[in-house]
């Protein structure tokens, strides 16, 4: 629709998703859907968090972003799995032009591994090993990672947020 994206000035994933959805609903006069997501690393006091894309630099080079996270973890002596806990968050927001808002959030916990593994190059997936799994998100197919039952387990943060959204829609019928 050629809408400009608002500046992400929120301090949480939910706030940034809301900013984007509300701006699009207001500008278009139509219901709008937006998300904000990223990786939160416990040993880095929650960084990169809402700045996950910025950690990859202006070219969005996530290999660079993963190296930056690893450098920071090494500098803090975070070398064991217990010290390398992280989680992905995905916040969805649906905004209507009348100001009505619905928000949903998905989270998946795991640990960061080094070196990164897998041919699927998307964000920080190659270094993220979800709890209870033996393969990183970078080693999983899209269906394995995002697939919803009965085709997948809904492992990803986005799949989990989408399930929340779908359940809310179905409950209102």
Question: Helix and strand string, N-terminal first?
Answer: HEHHEEEHH
Integer average pLDDT: 93
Poorly predicted tracts of residues: none
Give the strand tally: 4
Tally of individual helices: 5
Give the CATH class: Alpha Beta
Share of β-strand residues = 15-25%
Q: Report the end-to-end length measured between terminal Cα atoms.
A: 30 Å
Class from helix and strand fractions: alpha+beta
Biggest sheet: strand arrangement: 1-2-3-4
Q: What is the CATH architecture term?
A: Alpha-Beta Complex
The rounded Rg comes to 17 Å
Keywords:
173 residues, alpha+beta, Maf protein, four-stranded antiparallel beta sheet, 4 strands
Detailed description of the structure:
The protein contains five helices and four strands, in the order αβααβββαα. The mean pLDDT is 93. The radius of gyration is 17 Å and the shape is globular. The chain has a four-stranded antiparallel sheet with strand order 1-2-3-4. The protein starts with 12 loop residues before the first helix and ends with a helix. The chain has one domain: Maf protein, CATH 3.90.950. The chain is 31% helix and 21% strand. A hairpin with a 5-residue loop joins strand 2 and strand 3. It is of the alpha+beta class and 173 residues long.
Chart the SSEs and their pairings.
Blueprint: H1 13-28, E1 32-41, H2 52-55, H3 62-75, E2 85-95, E3 101-112, E4 128-130, H4 142-146, H5 157-171
Antiparallel strand pairs: 1-2, 2-3, 3-4
